[in-house]
Fold:
Amino acid sequence: MTILVTGAAGFIGSNFVLDWLGQSTEEVVSLDLLTYAGNLENLSSLNQNPHHHFVKGNIGDRDLVLTLLKKHDIRAVIHFAAESHVDRSIHGPGDFIETNIVGTYNVLESVRSYWNDLDEPSKKSFRFLHVSTDEVYGSLNDKASAFTENHPYEPNSPYSASKAASDHLVRAWFHTYGLPVLTTNCSNNYGPYHFPEKLIPLCILNALNDKPLPIYGDGKQIRDWLYVKDHCSAIREVLKQGHIGETYNVGGWNEKTNLEVVETLCAILDELKPKSDGKSYADQITFVKDRPGHDRRYAIDASKLERDLGWRPEETFETGLRKTVIWYLEHETWVNHVVSGEYQHWVEKQYS
Ligand code: NAD
Ligand code: TYD
Structure:
């Protein structure tokens, strides 16, 4: 049997595929459109792996997706493909509606058509796992309890609204058509292969290049941080044991303000790669204009996943962040290739 992973050349998708093939010989078909965020270099270590097949294509191409499902006898789809950056969604929401909502609708329809024609045992064991975000729940004040799976949906950005819509479609395909779906809503991931438009990789690279470390507003916004490999293990667990139709929150139990995140990162860099002038990287921290509609706090209550499926993250924020910084220091070629691409234009638009 084989799994189909959409968005497999992106940050989390590529970590998931590498992780999967690191511990299984079950074949993986990776589908990715290779947008600005998709980087085939993330999967280059699998070039000679006979269990991995990469296909460049759009999740919205129903014929392509259906053909892949049939050709490879797919037993599960892990759906990561999306437009994922909040700031980009503010500058241009159209791609988010197209990919996250219409794209997910098209994938669901291809999957439904394939699933309908399976024999009964295959139909029963088939899974569609939809990867979503805690941002669909909206913003919390400092005293509120963390998001549980029952928290109302209150998305505030075009990105989170588009993900919320996709979650609703997935839910409806379960209730209406019986498609065996699972949904995970996770917090902010960080780790290897993270595109440097997001806070942590952006600040690592800016720090090393003697550039400002941009903190939006007062830097007191809170996120829960999840090391990407812990996210991968959670998805594997949900796929294996999750109850169909259910939602599982995935979090790292690591609430930090953005300022704390960047200060911790600077302290790790000060230790691992001290500046020649003896100063701290923290001196590069610069407060910049806030993001419009910036959500104040996200916090994930991941206790359902622990209670029902026995999953807990392995990394603390400090251990995960140290691994991440070391990865970036050791992967200069990957960094140079990413930085020399389209990303440059984005940086000009966002920070000029
Ligand atoms: P990413 O932007 O790094 O990767 C997305 C991938 O999807 C890219 O490789 C891109 O080329 C591909 N893609 C985009 N449109 C496509 C299309 N039409 N057809 C096929 N492929 C397409 O995103 P990520 O950070 O890896 O996030 C993966 C998933 O996890 C997303 O659904 C995102 O909403 C969710 N998520 C991410 C985070 C996070 O912290 N990164 C947190 C919660 C949830
Ligand atoms: P980001 O990595 O874009 O993830 P998300 O918006 O999905 O949570 O941002 C994480 C937090 O860091 C968020 O509160 C916005 C903030 N941020 C900055 O302060 N400066 C930056 O340059 C970026 C990209 C983000």
Summary: The radius of gyration is 20 Å. The first strand starts at residue 2 and ends at 6.
